[in-house]
Design brief:
- By secondary structure, this protein is an all-beta fold.
- It is 0% helix and 28% strand.
- It is elongated.
- It contains no helices and 4 strands.
- The two termini are 23 Å apart.
- The model has no long low-confidence stretch (mean pLDDT 90).
- Strands 1, 2, 3 and 4 form a 4-stranded antiparallel beta sheet that branches.
Length: 71
């Protein structure tokens, strides 16, 4: 794996934290455009969720995000 910004190959693994209200502590990727429900929150019912794997380039700081396994 390499940085798409500068080409470095020593990307550092990590994760994207979600600390919002009622958050589980990690962010997830959901397919499709954002649709808002009655109270303004995102409509998520019945949609698959994928784990987000994040990698940071130590040279330029660029983040690479990948939606991987279902959670």
């Amino acid at each position: 794996m390499k940085c798409t910004h500068c080409g470095a190959t020593d990307l550092e693994p990590g994760f994207v934290e979600d600390t919002g209200e009622h958050a589980r502590g990690y962010a997830r990727w959901i397919p499709g455009p954002l649709e808002r429900g009655l109270f303004g929150g995102a409509k998520r019912m019945g949609k698959p969720r994928r784990q987000i794997d994040a990698y940071r380039c130590p040279r330029c700081g660029h983040l690479e995000l990948f939606a991987t396994a279902y959670v």
